[in-house]
Request: fold
Amino acid sequence: MSELRRSKRFSPSVVTEKLVPVFLTVLLLVLLAVIVIIALSLIGATPSA
Reply:
């Protein structure tokens, strides 16, 4: 199982190979920002409206 299996039906383009890791990184950063905002609001660090 040391060889990498490639799908015969789907071969990703160069744009897709570069765009997917960037998209996942941005999505992870957004998730972390949401978690930080929720944590700050739970401890009362954000001003109430």
Residues 6 and 12 are 10 Å apart (CA to CA). The chain has one helix and no strands.
